[in-house]
Amino acid sequence: MSGALTERERQVVEAIDVEAMAEGVRALVRIPSWGGQETAAQEFMARLLADSGLEVDRWEIDLNELARHPAFSAEIVREHALGVVGTLSGKGGGRSLILNGHVDVVPPGDAALWRHPPFDAVLEDGRIYGRGALDMKGAVVAAAYALRAVREAGAELKGTVHLTSVVGEEDGGLGTLATILRGYRADGAVVMEPTELAVAPAQAGALNFRLRVPGQAAHGALREEGVSALENLFPLYRALEALEEDRNHRLGGDPLFARYQRPFALCVGTVHGGDWASSVPDHVTVEGRLGVAPGEAPEQARRELERAVQEAAAAHPWLRNHAPELTWWGGRFLPARTATDHPLVTVLQGAASSVLDRPVPLEGMTYGADMALFVHEGSTPTVLFGAGDIRGAHRPDESVAIDDLVAMARSLAVTVMRFCA
After folding, report:
1. pTM score, whole prediction
2. Which residue among the candidates 9, 38, 169, 171 is catalytic per the annotation?
């Protein structure tokens, strides 16, 4: 259902306190929450959800127990982690919905590269600047104000809505996994990643890999007597580039990903090697991520990368007898898909179209997110939907437009009223 907003829906969307929402986003952005230090941000969210009139479930996550689950993955060693869920209960008999957002952020990087300090949450020209403003503290705060407006306007729901504020998304999704295992499953879930307000019923996956390339050390003055691991890396890297091209040619025909040339990218993100400036390096290690297509078995994607490395090494005169070492490590995001005709997809698309007064597209997102955990571990149909463009995340001057947060909050409020009616 789309069309114009009903009078009741219009009352709810106009009840969203935009000024308070923006100040709430800025307050959360000011709380650094990277490197596993997420507790203060979660405490903030617990207070905000309680102030919004939601029933709050706050618990200490048993990290040791969680780590034994097959779907667990993480890159950061944490001493403790909090789960936080706010619930707006319905009368019964309606569909249930989860709104999911994470408070952890990636490191700020070199603060000198930012126009404004990364945790000052500067408001300028209608945008909030700061690490996490876009990805995705703005979204989780906006969702809280959307539910507050639904409750305060007296909109009657049959179904129950949960707002899950989670940690650990950036390095594998342990917070969402813990929330699912605590029993939070529903008839649908919206993971509020930046999608430019498109509804995304499909997301790519991403698997982290580490490739250690051997060499043979020698004094730099006698370079020809050694074997440079850096030079040995080059044919392997070219093999990775060829694999990326081949995989995207074979797997890239999904119309939901039509605007991307390489929707399932293979990216090398770090390079480390050698021990001394005047020595031939006897090792170089690169780390990267392998994009996985929705519907593709992750094991098959792994085998393709392993085979590409093995074949390139076998064709190299030195590496054929000194095999590179490939390992899979750290964060793991599986691909996921929800049928485009599922009620969650059609209701959200219709609600957003009503709010924005324009057609809202269906698209696939090329990045990994917690959608796959809801789909595969929680048996919950899920989409991605949120304010802003992912291109602005994980970089200096990250920001989000307040107008986009307002549009997102209003779209979520109407979705709640229609999906949980």
Report:
1. 0.94
2. 169
